[in-house]
C-alpha cells in the first residue's frame, strides 16, 4: 500500500508534494535490517504488573487520604454483599456425578513442612493459602466460544459444554490498576484482586458471580490437582538442564561442562528438539493425586501431601482430581457455604493437654495424622509395677579384684 502511494504521488505533476505527504503521515522511510517480529514476550518471563496511573502519582496528600478512605468503605461494602450472596446461595452436600466439574481455588504456596502420622512416620506436606477468593465472572460456552480463541478449543469438548469461571485472589489497592482491569470486579461487586485464574465448570456446579470461596471447598482425605509454573532457574548449561554427565576430567581443557558434539552430520544443521543449554524452568506443570491431610479454617490454609510446582510465593490453581480411583464422590455442590457449617462440640480437655485455648485454631485433621495436643506416651498401672532386679538393658560390668 505504501509503495503504490509513493508511485502515484511521484508520477503526478508536482513531485514536491511527495515529501510533504510523507512528512504529514509520519512515515519513516529509513531502511532497517529485517528482524524477527515479536508480538508477545517470551513465555518464560514472569508477567509485569500494570503500571500505576500517572494521575495517582500527581495527587496531593489530602486527595490521597480521601481516596484511601473511599476505597476502604467500598471494600467493606463489597465484602458484606459477598457474604450475603454466600448465605443466599443454595448449597448442599450431595453425590457428585462423574461428568461434573467443580470450580477450583487460586492459592499461594507458602512452603513445605513435615507432618507425623499416628504410627510415627514422617510425611512432607506443602502449605497452600487461600487468600480472599471470590468468583469474578461466569462465562457461558456460547459467549466464550465467540470471544476468544481459547474458548473455541475448550468451550465444547468431549466432556460437553463447559463454562469458564474466573476466580480472583488477594485484595489489592485499586488505584494501582487501570479502569479496564477494575471493571470486571466492579461488575461482580467484589474488591479488586491482584491475581485471577480460570476453571472449566459444568452447568450443574456453577457458582454465582461475587460468591466467596472457602478452604472447606475441599475436604479431608480428598485428592486434588495442582497446576502452576515451575521454579525459574534462568539460563543453565546442559549438565544442569538435562542432567548430562559432562566430558572427562582428564586430558580435557575448558570443556568439562560442555555438551560436546551436537551431531552436525549430513545436513550440517541443528535439528529442533536438540538438548542444548538454554532457559530452564518457569513452565506450566500439573501434579495430580495429592491428598489433603489438614485444613486450618481460621487461617485458610490447606496442607497437601507431597510437593507442588513453583517457588515459595507462586500462585497456583487447585482443583479436584479427575483420576477415577481418586475422584471425589461426595462433597459440597457447587461449593462450601456458611449454611453447611455445623457447631462442633468442644472435647473435654484431658490433664495431659497443657496448650492454652487461645493458641489453638479451628482445624480439621486427617485421622492418620498425629495431633500434638494429644499425649504421646501413655503410662498404665502395669508399667508402674516394675519387677525389681538388674536392668538387663545395661551391660554387666565385671568387678576387678584388688
What do you see in this structure?
It is built from nine helices and 17 strands. The longest helix is centred in the first third of the chain and has 28 residues, at 61-88. The chain has helices spanning 2-10, 17-25, 54-57, 61-88, 141-147, 149-154, 179-188, 238-242, 381-384; strands spanning 92-95, 105-116, 122-129, 133-139, 156-157, 160-161, 163-171, 193-201, 212-213, 223-229, 232-236, 278-281, 284-296, 301-305, 315-320, 330-333, 363-365. The protein is an alpha+beta fold. 20% of the residues lie in helices and 25% in strands. It has a domain at 67-233 and 281-340: Beta Barrel (Elongation Factor Tu (Ef-tu), domain 3), CATH 2.40.30. It has a six-stranded antiparallel beta barrel with strand order 2-3-14-13-10-15. Strands 8-7-4-9 form a four-stranded antiparallel sheet. Keywords: Ribonucleoprotein, Ribosomal protein. GO terms for molecular function: structural constituent of ribosome. It comes from Caenorhabditis tropicalis.
Amino acid at each position: 500500500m505504501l509503495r503504490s502511494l509513493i508511485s502515484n504521488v511521484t508520477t503526478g505533476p508536482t513531485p514536491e508534494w511527495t515529501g510533504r505527504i510523507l512528512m504529514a503521515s509520519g512515515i519513516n522511510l529509513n531502511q532497517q535490517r529485517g528482524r524477527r517480529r515479536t508480538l508477545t514476550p517470551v513465555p518464560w518471563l514472569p508477567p509485569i504488573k500494570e503500571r500505576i496511573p500517572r494521575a495517582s502519582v500527581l495527587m496531593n496528600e489530602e486527595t490521597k487520604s480521601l481516596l484511601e478512605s473511599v476505597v476502604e468503605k467500598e471494600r467493606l461494602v463489597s465484602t458484606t454483599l459477598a457474604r450475603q450472596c454466600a448465605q443466599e446461595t443454595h448449597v448442599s452436600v450431595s453425590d457428585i456425578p462423574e461428568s461434573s466439574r467443580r470450580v477450583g481455588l487460586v492459592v499461594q504456596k507458602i512452603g513445605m513442612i513435615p507432618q507425623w502420622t499416628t504410627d510415627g512416620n514422617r510425611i512432607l506436606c506443602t502449605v497452600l493459602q487461600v487468600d480472599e477468593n471470590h468468583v469474578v465472572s461466569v462465562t457461558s460456552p456460547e459467549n466464550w466460544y465467540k470471544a476468544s480463541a481459547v474458548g473455541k478449543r475448550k468451550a465444547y469438548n468431549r466432556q460437553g459444554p463447559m463454562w469458564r469461571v474466573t476466580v480472583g485472589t488477594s485484595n489489592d489497592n485499586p488505584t494501582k490498576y487501570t479502569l479496564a482491569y477494575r471493571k470486571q470486579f466492579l461488575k461482580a461487586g467484589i474488591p479488586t484482586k491482584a491475581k485471577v485464574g480460570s476453571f472449566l465448570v459444568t452447568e450443574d456446579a456453577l457458582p454465582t458471580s461475587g460468591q466467596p470461596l472457602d478452604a472447606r471447598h475441599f475436604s479431608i482425605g480428598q485428592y486434588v490437582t495442582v497446576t502452576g509454573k515451575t521454579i525459574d532457574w534462568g539460563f543453565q548449561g546442559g549438565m544442569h538442564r538435562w542432567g548430562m554427565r559432562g566430558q572427562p576430567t582428564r586430558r580435557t581443557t575448558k570443556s568439562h561442562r560442555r555438551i560436546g558434539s551436537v551431531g552436525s552430520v549430513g545436513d550440517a544443521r541443528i535439528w529442533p528438539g536438540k538438548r542444548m543449554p538454554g532457559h530452564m524452568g518457569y513452565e506450566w506443570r500439573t501434579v495430580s493425586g495429592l491428598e489433603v491431610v489438614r485444613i486450618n479454617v481460621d487461617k485458610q490454609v490447606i496442607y497437601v501431601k507431597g510437593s507442588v510446582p513453583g517457588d515459595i510465593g507462586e500462585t497456583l490453581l487447585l482443583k479436584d482430581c479427575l483420576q477415577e480411583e481418586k475422584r471425589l464422590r461426595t462433597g459440597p455442590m457447587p461449593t462450601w457455604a456458611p449454611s453447611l457449617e455445623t457447631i462442633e462440640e468442644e472435647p473435654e480437655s484431658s490433664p495431659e493437654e497443657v496448650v492454652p485455648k487461645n493458641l489453638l485454631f479451628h482445624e480439621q485433621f486427617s485421622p492418620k495424622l498425629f495431633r500434638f495436643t494429644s499425649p504421646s506416651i501413655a503410662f498404665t498401672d502395669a508399667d508402674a509395677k516394675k519387677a525389681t532386679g538388674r536392668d538387663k538393658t545395661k551391660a554387666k560390668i565385671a568387678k576387678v579384684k584388688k
